[in-house]
Each structure stands twice: as structure tokens, then as C-alpha cells.
Amino acid sequence: MSDLERQRREIAAALQRPGVSPDPNLRLTRRMFFHKSCLFGAATVGQTFAWWPLINTIDVAYAAEESFKFAWISDTHLYPRSVNTRFVEKVVRAAKDVQSMSPPADFLIFGGDIAQLGKPEELELGVELLKEVKIKKVFIPGEHDWYLDMGKKWGQLFGQPNWTFDHKGVRFIGLDTVSRGPDYWTARKMSPEERMDHMAVLDGSVAGPWAGVGRDQLDWMEKILAGWDPSRPIVIFSHNPLYEYYPPWNFWVRDWREVQAVLKPFSNVTNIHGHVHQVLYNEIGNMRSIGMLATSWPWPYAPEGVPKLTKPMIRVDPGDIYDGVGWEKLTMNRDKIETEYVMWGRKEVFVQSAEDSSLSTPEVLRPRIADQLGPYEGSKP
Ligand SMILES: [Fe+2]
Ligand SMILES: [Fe+2]
């Protein structure tokens, strides 16, 4: 048996507990129906998706107090300037773009993976480059920021990894979905650098299913949402998607069902997430999830396809470092949420017809990996 295979088995044995069955309380919501109607309506009358490049999502929602914009940047994966400046240049460009928004954004959310290998100079470089953005900035961590020193430097620079604030009738919540990776490194006597190397690999089969919210954070969410009017908007920022998209790459949190349970009473919930480096859209229960671009590089779509509600992005040109990457403007109107993907050098962000990409076919259903795992309590190292 190879070393890698042995590691995988050890980790799987440590992480998987039998006897837990799902509560797949999924249903077609009014929002989902509306969204599907838009897609099928446009397709059946032979229109193009000309308006999709600007707006991937239009939703009936209840009442932000007034319309406003905010911006998202994430997954900059900065190396020190002495190693390369390619990613630095793209952060400079994104920061300038955000700062020149008119009307201005009310705030910038940075969605994690500011650094590539979690080094202090990488994290500090991110702070320096984002000084260009003068509006309020809030941060959540990515796994690349965390696993060299278990979030010590990140905490010094950015504070608490989870937080909440209210803005113009919307409750915003920032979640930490990266810090609770089950500790398999101590027993293996891994160095911080080895641990970080494991976490920096897209294929999570070495580091295991590390992404999760954790019981303590679920309890905290319950507490801060007690008393919030169930019809008022909630926007949750997380590095990983809060549903099961593709666990082998940790494109999920393994306790997403518990997250759904906490949010079940609320009718207007949006999850905006990074980590996937690609355009994504999904709805489960009362929550819609929107995937954001990276500034660094695009990841491919999962081999098994994308959620049915996703209008896939174009296939990018690997020879163009500005293709398939960028940042987002998000608008909260009184009655809708709009996502504008700012993909540098592209007028058309989305594929224009089903014939353009096999990814336009519906997702393949398979047994959910979460069904095979035990309850996730989350453990702070
Ligand atoms: Fe990333
Ligand atoms: Fe990530």
C-alpha cells in the first residue's frame, strides 16, 4: 500500500462514524421557482442570455431598508514579491477597481485565502495592498491563511474570524469555516510547513474533510439570530460553500445540514462564499448560495458537474492570466439581490448555450458523502 493510500485510510477511519442518517428536508422554494422560470422562459423563446453577464441572480427578497452596494475580493493567494508579482498585480487592480466604484461600495468583504502558504510576509502584503481600499473592510479566513501557525498571525492582523453586524436592515454574518480541521498532524509529528503543504492541496484526500462550522459557532449563530425577524434579509459570508458541492476538494462544510437547521426559520438567507474560484449558484431549503471568483486563478468545475441552478462560466484561456478571475460587486436592493462578476477582459462571463459546454448538463446525483460521516462537533486545535 502506498504512503498516500495509507494516510487516506488512517484519516478516513479517524473521521468517519457510522449510523447517522440525513434529514434531506429540501423543497422547491418560491425563489427557486422564480429563478428557474427566468432560465427556462429565456431558453424556450429563443432569447440569448445577454443580460446574464451582469446579473446571475435576481431574487424576490424582503426589504433591505435602502439599496446599497458592497464588494467582494477573495482568494488572492499572495506569495512574497520576491517569489512572484503576478498575483500582486491582480490584487492591486482589484483594489483600485473597488475604490473607484461609483456609487461607492458601503464596505468590502475579503473572503479568505489572502496568502498562499500562510507566511507572515504574505499576510502583511495583503494588508498593504488593500490599503488602497479606504472603505470599511471585513475579513474571514481561508485555509491557506491558517495552517502554518493555526491562525495566530491572521488573528493579529484581522481580529476575530467570525463576527456579525447590521447594515441598512440586513444582518451580515462572517463565519470561520477553516480552523477546525481534525488534528491528524500531531500524532504524525508534522512540522507547521508540512501541515500547511497538506492544506494547500486542492485534492483534500490528504488533509481530509477539514471544512466545517462547528457546534460552538452554530450555537453562536443561533444566539445572534434569536429575535431577528424571520422575513428580514440575512447574508452569511464563508470561505467554503455552506452546502455539499464537491467534498473531495472541500467545496462544502461537512456540517452543512446543521447550518440549514439553524437557518430554517428564516426565509431570506444568502450565503456568499469563496474557495471554489468559480461562478456557482445553488439553492437548498431557504438558503441561496453564490460562489465568487478568485483574483489568482480559476479552479475547474467539479468532475461531476455543477448544481442545476448554476449558469456556468465560460471556459477560460489558460494563456491569459487575467482570464477567469476577478472580483464582485453585490447590490442589495429593496426587493432583489444582484451579483455582478467583474471578470477582467471578458464581456461575456457565462456560457451562451448548452451546446457550448458539457457543464450545462444537470448535476449528477450521487450518495452524499455527508451521509456517511458522523456528526461534526468541530474542535478548536
Ligand atoms: Fe483559494
Ligand atoms: Fe480555500
From TrEMBL:
PANTHER family (UniProt xref): METALLOPHOSPHOESTERASE, CALCINEURIN SUPERFAMILY (PTHR43143), SERINE_THREONINE-PROTEIN PHOSPHATASE CPPED1 (PTHR43143:SF1)
Gene3D superfamilies: 3.60.21.10
InterPro entries: Calcineurin-like_PHP, Metallo-depent_PP-like, STPP_CPPED1
One function term, GO molecular function aspect: hydrolase activity
Domain of life according to the entry: Bacteria
Organism: Methylobacterium planeticum
Classification of source organism: Bacteria, Pseudomonadati, Pseudomonadota, Alphaproteobacteria, Hyphomicrobiales
Pfam families per record: Metallophos (PF00149)
Name of the protein in question: Metallophosphoesterase
Residue ranges of domain Calcineurin-like phosphoesterase in the record: 68-278
